Protein: VOC domain-containing protein
Organism: Bradyrhizobium centrolobii
Amino acid sequence: MALKNVVGVDHAVVMVKDLDKAAENYRQLGFTVSPRGTHSAHMGTGNYTIMFDPDYMELLGVLAPTEHNAPARAFLEKRGEGIERIAFTAVDSSAGAEEIRARGLTPIGPTDFERPVTLPNGTVSAAKFRTFMWPTEEAPGGVRIFACQHKTRETVWIPELMTHANGAKRIQQVLIATPEPAKEAAHLSRLIDREPKTEADGAVAVPSGGDRADFVYLTLDQLGGRYPGVPLAGLSERGGAALVLASSDLAETEKALGSAGVRSGSAICVPPARANGTLLAFIAG
């Protein structure tokens, strides 16, 4: 039985060393980046968001060391920048946590937190969330997973932030490099009760639920085979990750990316070295 309170990919968390520099880098790549947010004190982190429909990307940085952000700091120290975790949308985080507990897993949370949001009219409101995490060691392919319940969607999905010069509209796939794709896909499959499917090149896909992005586990060589000519320097053999983004207009994508863009078959890519440790692949959609 698929989880009832967890539905599909919500957002991808890109862990970065210098939050403001990363935000400026993504602006240079043609993304509309939100104003900077600061999370609750126990989290010790700040973020910028890049909003799509129905999902988004989050640039996350540590502002002060806390117990809560210890795994994120360990990720930066060991692997450098890149996708550190993926969030699912939680319909109800409390019920979702109990669902995974019933499957023999001990959830972290639920945890309530918020961050102030400056709205386009200049007023300040708050974005409020309730999240829970699968146990830290349950990280298929080296990428952690958690679930996020949005209690104030109107302060996160702000229309003015959802149009991007590079045409990005949504996340189509989350690609995770691993020497053992079938094993890691089976791991995620057990955690979210979704069936894996082997693809033509030997990669293994796991649907995240609903109409949301699929996870695809593949070797670094298979990833290179999908995007020939794109330098993968900086991507870890296990846990290095890419996002396939649907674009409304690839000509606008190419124009916005400028020298950072690399044409590879039908995709236009940004190598990990130019996107804070994350391969970005734009496709028509």
In short: The mean pLDDT is 96. The first strand starts at residue 6 and ends at 15.
